[in-house]
UniProtKB/TrEMBL annotation:
Top class in the EC scheme: hydrolase
Keyword Nucleotide-binding: yes
Protein family: Belongs to the DNA2/NAM7 helicase family.
The protein's name: DNA replication ATP-dependent helicase/nuclease
Composition-biased stretches (Basic and acidic residues): 1-15, 62-73
GO cellular component: chromosome; mitochondrion; nucleus
Span list, region Disordered: 1-73, 92-113
Organism: Nasonia vitripennis
UniProt lineage: Eukaryota, Metazoa, Ecdysozoa, Arthropoda, Hexapoda
Length: 1191
């Protein structure tokens, strides 16, 4: 082999795209459905295929020479397969020549195997990340005759019966779930892996051959095995190092490898991602749209896109009506009609009607036909009244409603879903009425409220639910698909080929949903490439797709060249090019990539879904993510929700908190229900859920797990994606945010404004007054830069009061609930009316009367709700809460954003869509938006919109501060503010600690007296502990963790003891530490009435005395980590500017001066001789004596 051939082999990679030309004889993929005999006679879904279709599907035939009738889904999945074509890993450049010779297997020996190798470059490093969420194994038997198929796992035979015993079948179901607890597998190492049941493995190696791929995998015991995958499975996008779930066969007992092919076995890729059934079938038509919708689905709810969807509204309400009728066993038509009226009066329904912009009467008129159809359904399938004339509908009876909205999570299939109804049915299979053969079984029922179509998506969804029910041990071989509008219900039976193709599609959806942007690293910089999407389809529906702008935005240059003149995306791309620039597109795609990168970092801090099915409950509990082995003692209904009370002795309640979102599991089922913790103690946990789980799950043990669900990613991606829309609001925001168009102002204001605001201006200083007037002059936006203690809140309240007098509407928002409430509490003092959107548990109790739930308590229609909302000139809500329906239906005159420097740019966009003008308020020298990923920070994710727009033209500055005395202000000026901060009041500038018992100074140590000196010039002091990293701890103390520092903690404890004796009130003393581990240590040491927190939690607040524990002490040889929190000047600025009368900083100077911000701070202290070097034996200072305080 020459060097060129060797190099070409090294460059082949599983991430390389495969084109149709490389694999010319690739088979089309079909999905096959068989309905019951009656359905087959009447439905047009199953039709004959073309000759070419039959040829393409030949190697799926059960017997050689025997053809099977194909259905139109084969053609649809051909499109899906084409999206696979360009993204398949093939490392065989000779495949084109080989495959053109024959479409079957050759009798000759296959060409040499091509072993996957990863090529590397010394100049550029490409790092493609895959996010992880959750899933596990695939367990579905794959025989040709579905009617003869049996589940590969026997589970609970009658899971939903009210009474059942622990049978052998249930035991096997429990053992099935235990198989996924990796840490609990047998310690006896086996020599082989048995893939007759699905197993989770790690891919070691992949070999790409002419007609198959060969996987080398290992299990949890490090046992290796070989699996050959052919047919559809050879196109699965996988890479070495990834987890995978395999179910396979051995073609002969002597075979040394396992086999997965079109007729046997399954592969589940990306197994730690549970894909919803609706997402899978949504990709049947257009995989690209499905992926875009999954990531940007909230873009349709933005104000400029918000068009009332009556179909979705009536569909949701019809589901509720139908399910409630069945649950409450209502058979009378009048009672069904009365139930409809009750539902339409519910708070939830009123909110839904308001969002859709429809009156209750109009909604009722749309819903009335459903009442009659539900009654007909009940009479036939529940009461048992057969139709006078036979029809083509399912001919059976519903014997029992087993569950409603059953939540099914199946790691073994990588799927999740909510089944509309789980029912037990009976059907006479005998044609002879004299000798009935009644079959009873549990099946899923899927309700559709539109016209009957028996579309591939609808049938596919039901087949997935059937597979999922099989996996739970209920042996469902079919499901019922009901079109309520026409009362047509058919039994849907999915063939093994259909199941295979749906799993293949699931793998594709999982692949694209887990793709992370590629980070390109060079010696000079890092950049990020856009995420990968499936190939676009060519269909007239593209013109009406709500995601077509995003679709064209993510077209590669090669894909654009491939678009034909008649392709719908061609015209859309040209239209988009008329109003979007490359700068606009780059901004949006960059932020989308940054959000994905950051989510990956955030998920590492959260509990992994994978743990729920790979770790047993007790081990999850040790990690602090689970409360295991609970007994359910009571369930009570409160306002339509169910409060579940769980009990167990010795619950560790410290890891869980009120209002935390959790999932509830049993020993055999994951996430049977989710809800919010109401309360938690050492013996009980109460959880609010939407359903009563005891209706289905009785006499079992429960586990409560933390949820790692994060909905903010979809919100933020939708907000930034909305900037690309062709709308006036989006155009204005693009000019301001992306192009950084300078703020413009009116030259003069009407003289009447000064008259209207005369009383208001008397209460504020000149800087604040000018800020308000400039806000009124601004045409589109203004920045108000408020330094620490300069009265930002007072300025905003005065501005709001003046705007109301000018008859303007105001939207008040901020990053945190506390910041929003701080403004609203001041409005209450001035008797200004408002409405507050948000959760009562997260808002200030004094605002309760203004909360939406209380203000709208008596609204009994969407019309009255709208009247109440619009009667409020002022609305308060957090940036994340700005997705409220009212903000989609109302344009405010002005939006005021407090703490805007802490908000991510995409998060801030949502309230800005709902206002004509905005005012950003904050201090760019204090905390920025949080970005945990280092690459994301480097690429600018922690740049706030305030910082992006900050300029002399765009901002006004508040300089007079009323918090710090002159000594502390001097330190802040030298550290950060360049002498811009000024004393707003002489009394404030000279204030010192309010000591009431000065005699206590005489009895304390000398170092304490120096530290707590009441002299103004000593109000800020730096206590240099020198190196503490080498000091030895007492044996009774816990081992040091991370940057925890017991010596600093002991000093702080002693200082607090003296401060309390001096008469300083405990609520005016604050302790800050940069590291959480030090905060945890201090909270154990310091009295509970002293607040100990991180810098972030002190933003926007102040205390009379602040003690800052720097914590870190290291040797000069220890390397400092990149992005160490001590290197963050903004956080240090916040810490220094929280104190009003006394600032005490404790730390090792030699360590701290290695950090740029602290070196600057230490220089400032040293220039005023305010560094106090503590030494054992001098000034009564002794670390040994101090540590005794901790024992």
């Amino acid at each position: 082999m020459n060097s060129e051939d060797r190099q070409s082999k090294l460059e082949e990679s599983p991430t390389k795209q495969r084109t149709p030309r490389q694999l010319p004889c690739q088979k089309k993929v079909g999905i096959y459905f068989a309905q019951s005999k009656n359905a087959m006679d009447t439905s047009s879904i199953i039709t004959g295929s073309s000759e070419s279709d039959e040829e393409d599907l030949e190697d799926d035939l059960p017997e050689k020479g025997k053809k099977r009738t194909a259905d139109p889904l084969a053609k649809k999945l051909t499109k899906i397969r084409k999206t696979f074509d360009n993204n398949i890993t093939i490392a065989n450049e000779e495949s084109e020549e080989i495959d053109t010779e024959t479409s079957g297997y050759s009798s000759e020996k296959p060409s040499p195997k091509k072993i996957l190798q990863i090529s590397s470059s010394s100049n550029v490093e490409l790092t493609t990340k895959t996010k992880s969420t959750s899933s596990n194994d695939i367990i579905v038997d794959n025989k040709e005759n579905v009617s003869e198929t049996q589940g590969t796992l026997d589970g609970l035979d009658d899971l939903f019966e009210e009474e059942w015993t622990y049978t052998k079948k249930e035991k096997e179901s429990v053992e099935m779930l235990d198989d996924f607890f990796e840490d609990d597998w047998s310690y006896e190492k086996e020599n082989t892996i048995d893939f007759s049941k699905a197993k989770r493995c790690i891919i070691i190696d992949i070999v790409w051959e002419r007609t198959e791929i060969t996987l080398t995998v290992k299990d949890v015991h490090e046992v290796a095995a070989t699996v050959k995958c052919s047919g559809t499975w050879r196109y699965t996008k996988i890479q070495p190092g990834e987890a995978i779930i395999i179910k396979a066969i051995k073609e002969t007992p002597e075979a040394k490898h396992w086999t997965v092919n079109n007729n046997s076995g399954f592969i589940i890729s990306q197994p730690d991602t549970l894909v919803s059934g609706t997402s899978v079938v949504g990709a049947l038509f257009c995989n690209r749209r499905s992926t875009l919708q999954e990531k940007f689905r909230l873009i349709e709810s933005l104000p400029h896109n918000n068009v009332g969807n009556n179909y979705m509204l009536t569909g949701s309400l019809t589901h509720e009506l139908f399910q409630t009728v069945l649950d409450e066993k209502i058979t009378d038509a009048k009672k069904i009609s009365a139930l409809l009226d009750d539902i339409l009066k519910s708070r939830n329904a009123i909110q839904m009607m308001y969002s859709a912009g429809i009156s209750r009467q109009d909604c009722r008129n749309l819903m009335l036909p459903a009442v009659g159809q539900i009654h007909k359904f009940i009479q036939r399938y529940i009461v048992g009244i057969e139709p006078e004339t036979p029809d083509q509908n399912y001919n059976g009876k519903i014997e029992k409603i087993c569950d409603i909205e059953e939540n099914v999570w199946l790691p073994s299939l990588g799927l999740k879903g909510k089944i509309d109804l789980t029912i037990e049915i009976s059907q006479n299979k005998s044609k002879n009425k004299m000798f009935p053969n009644v079959e009873r079984k549990v099946v899923p029922l899927e309700l559709k409220t539109g016209r009957s179509s028996f579309s591939s998506e609808h049938q596919g969804q039901l087949i997935l639910y059937t597979m999922m029910m099989n996996e739970t041990g209920r042996k469902a071989d079919s499901g019922l698909l009901l079109y309520l509008r026409e009362n047509i219900m058919r039994e849907i039976i999915g063939s093994n080929n259909a199941q295979r193709d749906l799993i293949t599609l699931r793998n594709t959806v999982a692949y694209y949903s887990t793709r992370q942007p590629t980070i390109v690293k060079t010696k000079e910089e890092e950049s990020v490439l856009p995420m990968e999407f499936p190939k676009p389809i060519n269909h007239r529906a593209c013109a009406q797709c709500p995601y077509n702008t995003l679709c064209t935005t993510y077209l590669t240059e090669e894909e654009k060249k491939e678009l034909s003149v008649s392709h719908p995306l061609k015209a859309i791309d040209e239209k988009v090019a008329d109003y979007l620039t490359q700068e606009h597109i780059d901004y949006v795609t960059k932020w989308v990539s940054l959000l994905q990168i950051e989510e990956d970092a955030e998920n590492q801090d959260l509990v992994s879904w994978k743990d729920v099915w790979t770790l047993e409950p007790l081990k999850r509990e040790k990690r602090g993510s689970c409360i295991s082995n609970l007994n359910l003692v009571s369930v009570s209904e409160i306002n339509g929700r169910y409060l579940h009370k769980f009990q167990r002795l010795d619950i560790n309640a410290t890891d869980f908190c009120e209002n935390e979102y959790v999932i509830i599991s049993t020993m055999t089922r994951i996430n049977v229900c989710s809800g919010f913790i109401d309360s938690v103690s050492s013996e009980t946990v109460t959880v609010h859920c939407d359903k009563n789980i005891t209706k289905v799950y009785k006499d079992t043990v429960y586990h409560i797990d933390k949820s790692s669900f994060n909905s903010f990613l979809v919100q933020n991606m939708s907000h930034v994606g909305g900037l690309l829309d062709d709308h006036e609001t989006c155009s204005q925001l693009r000019k301001i945010i992306i192009e950084r168009k300078p703020a413009t102002f009116q030259t003069k204001l009407p003289p009447s404004i000064m008259e209207v605001g005369e009383d208001i201006f008397k209460k504020i200083n000149e800087h604040q007054k000018q800020a308000i007037l400039q806000a009124l002059r601004a045409d589109n936006y203004l920045l108000i830069k408020g330094f620490p203690g300069t009265g930002k809140t007072q300025t905003l309240v005065a501005l709001i009061e003046l705007l109301l007098k000018l008859d303007k509407s105001v939207l008040i928002t901020a990053h945190t609930n506390t910041a929003v409430d701080n403004i609203l509490l001041k409005l209450i003092e001035r008797k200004i009316d408002f409405i507050r959107f948000g959760n009562s548990t997260k808002t200030h109790p004094n605002i309760a009367p203004m909360l939406e739930a209380n203000v709208t308590e008596h609204c009994d229609s969407p019309e009255s709700l709208h009247t109440v909302y619009c009667s409020k000139k002022v609305v308060g809500v957090t940036c994340y809460g700005a997705t409220h329906a009212h903000l989609s239906r109302r344009k405010f005159d002005i939006c005021i954003v407090d703490e805007s420097t802490q908000v991510l740019q995409p998060t801030l966009l949502r309230p800005l869509y709902s206002a004509s003008k905005f005012i950003l308020v904050g201090d760019p020298e204090q905390l920025p938006p949080i970005a945990k990923n280092n690459t994301a920070r480097k690429l600018g994710m922690n740049e706030s919109l305030f910082s992006r727009l900050d300029s002399k033209n765009n901002a006004v500055v508040l300089k007079l501060q009323y918090r710090m005395n002159s000594c502390i202000m001097d330190i802040a000026n030298k550290l950060t503010y360049h002498d811009q901060l000024q004393i707003g009041c002489e009394k404030v500038g000279k204030a010192t600690m309010p000591v009431t018992n000065i005699a206590e100074f005489e009895s304390c140590e000398k170092w304490i007296r120096k530290t707590l000196s009441l002299r103004l010039k000593n109000s800020a002091i730096f206590l240099n502990t020198s190196a503490t990293y080498h000091l030895t701890l007492d044996e009774t103390l816990e081992e040091r963790k991370g940057s925890s520092n017991y010596w600093e903690a002991a000093m702080i404890l002693r200082l607090i003891e003296v401060l309390k004796k001096l008469g300083i009130e405990t609520q005016t003393i604050g302790v800050i530490a940069p590291y959480r581990v030090q905060v945890h240590l201090l909270r154990k040491v310091v009295p509970n009435d002293i607040e100990v927190n991180t810098v972030d939690q002190y933003q926007g607040r102040d205390k009379s005395v602040i003690i800052y524990s720097c914590s870190k002490s290291i040797s000069k040889d220890t390397k400092i980590q990149e992005f160490d929190i001590l290197e963050d000047q903004q956080r240090l600025t916040v810490a220094v500017t929280r104190a009003k009368h006394k600032l005490i900083i404790i730390g090792d100077v030699n360590t701290l001066q290695r950090f740029t911000p602290f070196n600057k701070l230490i220089t400032a202290f040293r220039s005023h001789e305010r560094i106090y070097d503590l030494k054992d034996g001098e000034d009564d200072f002794s670390f040994t004596d101090l540590l005794r305080l901790l024992l």
